[in-house]
Design a protein that fits this description.
Blueprint lengths: L2 H10 L5 H8 L19 E9 L1 H4 L8 H9 L2 E6 L5 H12 L3 E7 L2 H5 L4 H17 L3 E5 L12 H17 L3 E3 L1 H4 L17 H12 L3
Parallel strand pairs: 1-2, 1-3, 3-4, 4-5
Helix pairs in contact: 2-7, 4-10, 5-7, 7-8
Length: about 220
């Protein structure tokens, strides 16, 4: 398939076969392919950031302001919050087309917790994240990818799945040559950064921590 035609498809935000797109765009999946992205935003707005993800991004059940609101205060940039409670990475492949049409210079991507809870196979999550990265790059929006955080307390039983999902997201970022923020590792035992009411959503410290991590990559 001609790569120029493929890019035109990606610019529409349409979702043809994800597995096929991954094979075309990332033929070296599994190889050492770096992990830091260019900050060339083309004709997009360098002072506009879009955050996509689940309730951790939206701010549901998190203590204090959602991390995108904190990111706006830290960075001085306008930040759009496209977080949706219960969203899996699959939803990200549907929303990314409308997100890039807003022409943000940067897209912060944080999916995976619900994939783990709902038993989405890690390789499927990887394909979804790689697709999202590819749409960002086709539209010259800089993707910044974060792994899902650790899960504790009431959600501790899902933590092995969260660890596997985090590894899939790491691989997606590597294959897509996108900047990675490894929240799963950075959260340590999770006690400081997770809401003690459920062990899944963010504490006030967790919201600040994620905002600072994303801000450091803008």
């Amino acid at each position: 398939m001609n790569i120029r035609k493929l890019i035109k498809v990606l610019k529409t935000g349409a979702l043809p076969s994800i597995a096929f797109l991954v094979q075309i765009l990332f033929p070296g999946c599994g190889s050492d392919s770096g992990g830091k992205a260019s900050k060339d935003v083309g004709d997009n707005n360098p002072d506009l950031v879009a955050c996509i993800g689940d309730s951790i991004t939206q701010g549901y059940a998190c203590v204090g302001a959602p991390y995108p609101e904190r990111l706006a205060a830290m960075s001085g940039k306008a930040v759009l919050n496209f977080g949706s409670t219960g969203a899996k990475s699959e939803q990200g492949t549907s929303v990314i087309g409308s997100v890039v049409q807003r022409k943000p210079g940067y897209v912060c991507i944080l999916y995976g917790s619900n994939d783990a809870i709902m038993s989405v196979p890690p390789d499927v999550t990887q394909q979804h994240i790689q697709y999202i990265i590819s749409v960002c790059k086709a539209n010259q929006c800089v993707p910044i990818v974060a792994t899902p955080p650790k899960m504790i307390l009431d959600h501790a039983g899902y933590d092995p799945a969260a660890a596997a999902t985090a590894e899939a997201v790491r691989q997606a970022a590597k294959n897509g040559n996108a900047t990675l923020i490894d929240l799963y590792k950075a959260f340590g035992n999770g006690e400081k950064y997770l809401n003690p009411d459920d062990g899944l959503h963010l504490s006030d410290e967790g919201g600040d921590f994620i905002a600072k991590k994303f801000n450091s990559k803008l």
